[in-house]
Amino acid sequence: MTKKVCLVGSGNWGSAIARIIGANTQQLPEVFERDINMWVFEEEVNGRKLTEIINTEHENVKYLPGYKLPENIIAVPDLLDAEQGLKEGAMAVSLIKGIDFDKNGVVLISNIIRDALNIDCSVLMGANVANEVAAGDFCESTLGCSDLRHGALLRDLFNAPTFSVEVALDPHGVEMCGALKNVVAIGAGFCDGLNYGGNTKAAIIRLGLIEMKKFCFKYFDGVKEDTFFESCGIADLITTCFGGRNRKCAEAFVKTGQSWEELENTMLNGQKLQGTLTSKEVSTILKAHNAEDQFPLFTAIYRIAFEGADPKTITQLQPAQQ
Amino acid sequence: MTKKVCLVGSGNWGSAIARIIGANTQQLPEVFERDINMWVFEEEVNGRKLTEIINTEHENVKYLPGYKLPENIIAVPDLLDAEQGLKEGAMAVSLIKGIDFDKNGVVLISNIIRDALNIDCSVLMGANVANEVAAGDFCESTLGCSDLRHGALLRDLFNAPTFSVEVALDPHGVEMCGALKNVVAIGAGFCDGLNYGGNTKAAIIRLGLIEMKKFCFKYFDGVKEDTFFESCGIADLITTCFGGRNRKCAEAFVKTGQSWEELENTMLNGQKLQGTLTSKEVSTILKAHNAEDQFPLFTAIYRIAFEGADPKTITQLQPAQQ
Fold first, then answer.
1. For binding NAD(+), which residues are annotated in this chain's numbering (chains A, B) (predicted)?
2. Cβ-count burial of B17 within 10 angstroms (0-12 exposed, 13-18 middle, 19+ buried)?
3. Which end of chain B has the smaller Cβ count within 10 Å, N or C?
4. Residue B64 · residue B200 · CB < 8 Å
């Protein structure tokens, strides 16, 4: 039986991925239904409804202007209409790079989806800047899943000649990479703000990768070392530490002395940084477990970002207690 | 019994490391003799002998101008005078990033030293751009050795607050990382020459790291996966793919269409690129073992560099045969 695909979200990243999955369902009629419902948060653009523009012009003129969407992407303003009810055998995949937190610690977005819908949820993470994906530049991505059959089906949905998807049987590791790399990017931005050279920045990125691994191994079950060699690991970490808003705002934090809130207002139109938020929550977890000594880089980044520590302490790390 | 240190070479990198080991032998009189002989290829600079300038001004004005050498670094123009004969228990450490080749394949520089002197030889590799090390910018380095006692002693010689040395019991893996990263940097430079974005470059760096691992595992015994997480692995790879002459010349190769020889003449004053040389030799080995299919990135880089293949084929890799 063919699978019906519903895409929830239609921002920059959602629209870029719509171009790939829309083409793929057209080419695999024995596997997927052709038409894909895309839930769109309804808003007016130049006096017209965004859903109407997408369904007639086949372009998300607000969030991904300049790139056509396939005609089988159908914009739907009501979420329940879009997903048409969960059928037997339904599965989810989260493309959200971030994590949530509650009083007990890390809450994975995929777990929120799993718990709310009572279905399996995979994740797709990697070095995937949305506009570059939309432009058809070659990149790779990692599909983290706990069920190989789900992985194989979802790979068919996402893989393309310019979007090379590898399956990793490690959904938690893949998802945590997508969140923790933003903390390391804050550290990389501090280095740039201090005008440090390539040796130092490479050392911070490397130490960051080591602490990402250690954090995942310590607080999640079943995380695999190989995951950090996938696109979601080292590749996404590199892109984020050389490009990306977290790096950029952290550089400005050191150079201008402005607060994070001021920087978010002036540089990001008030949007919130993921890296500082995650840094704060990671630090809360480390404090609760009395484990700050074991994560000297994460701890130094937090103290510089939120406790007024000198940015230069980023390279004055105490050796980690094993 | 204290150990006498002899430094063979006094270029940019040799002079930078002299600053660290000169300070360390002063601070560890129970372990090392204070004075270090540094073999200097004798030449005239402004009418004076370079050794005489170093021994009076304590500065290598030709290869590391602007940085003082410790006064216990003694320039010696004759190599045999400098090393004063090999005593019982002597050990070597190679800081040369590169490999040699003969008709049977890869020849490690450390093996040439081992065979010629009949002593153990460790290696020191990492994200260590010489001028940044001389400036005292924080960085890390990896000491690859086969004997933990040698590793501990050599770590005392090289480690410093701004030069953090970790020991890896994997001399071949560490040394091969230092050579193979230059091949990947050629590929990263091709991406830059094609004006590809961050996603693509990160994917090429990641695929390069995977092929570096695979090449080491296939052709050397005892190489460890952890080595690629050390400074000599991922950190040096990152620095080399974002800075460095191999990346720069490969970018120009795509943009200008000039030959490697022309680029070496115009951009490097006639010095030879390590990356293209290593690419050629790696390709010879892969052909001899009928293993090109297993290394699609290394093979694509070689074909672009030497067989006139379109640079765009860097992202049109066939999946590796396992």
1. 9-14, 41, 130, 245, 272, 274
2. buried
3. C
4. no
Alpha-carbon gap, residue B17 to B128, rounded angstroms: 10
The answer to whether residues A143 and A158 touch, using CB atoms and an 8 Å cutoff, is yes
* DSSP 8-class letter at B248: H
- Strand spans (E) along chain A: 6-8, 36-39, 44-45, 48-49, 73-76, 92-94, 99-102, 105-108, 121-125, 139-144, 163-168
Between CA A221 and CA A151 the distance in angstroms is 19
Query: B171: closest CA among B251, B236, B90, B232?
Result: B232
β-strands A44-45, A48-49 pairing:
antiparallel
Secondary structure (3-state) at B190: helix
The ipTM of this complex is: 0.93
Residue keyed to tokens 């602007």:
B66
Do B171 and B110 touch, CB atoms closer than 8 A?
Answer: yes
pLDDT given for residue B321 in this prediction: 47
Considering only CB atoms, A140 lies closest to which of B198, B203, B229, namely B203
Residue type, B109: I
pLDDT at residue B255 tops 50: yes
> Residue B69: which of B90, B54, B86 has the closest Cα?
B54
| Residue A210 touches partner B, C-beta closer than 8 Å | yes
Measured between alpha carbons, how far is A63 from B115 in angstroms, rounded to an integer?
63
Section A168-192 average pLDDT: 97
d(CA A302, CA A96): 23
pLDDT band for position A321 (cuts 50, 70, 90): very low
- Per-residue pLDDT at A319: 62
DSSP bridge partners of B76: B39
Task: Please give the pLDDT value at position B34.
Answer: 98
DSSP A134-147: HTT--EEEEEE-S-
Q: For B179-221, give the DSSP string.
A: HHHHHHHHHHHHHHHTT--HHHHHHHHHHHHHHHHHHHHHHSS
Count of helix runs (H) and strand runs (E) in chain B? 13, 11
pTM: 0.93
Kindly state whether A310 is in contact with chain B, defined as any CB-CB distance less than 8 angstroms. no
Please indicate if any CB of chain A lies within 8 Å of the CB of B8. Answer: no
Catalytic residue, chosen from B3, B87, B181, B224, is B181
What is the full DSSP assignment across A208-263? Answer: HHHHHHHHHHHHSSS--GGGGGSIIIIIHHHHHHHSSHHHHHHHHHHHH---HHHH
Task: Quote the tokens at residue A135.
Answer: 């432009």
CB distance A293 to A321 below 8 Å: yes
The answer for B 144-173 residues in CB contact with A (under 8 A) is 162, 164
Q: Which residues contact A271 (CB under 8 A, 6 or more apart)?
A: A264
Residue A59 is given by DSSP the state B
- In angstroms, how far is CA B78 from the centroid of its own chain? 25
Q: What would the DSSP string read from start to end of B84-113?
A: --PPTT--EEE----EEEETTEEEEHHHHH
Which residue is associated with the tokens 């060699």? A229
Cα separation, B279 vs B315, whole angstroms: 17
Per-residue pLDDT, A113: 95
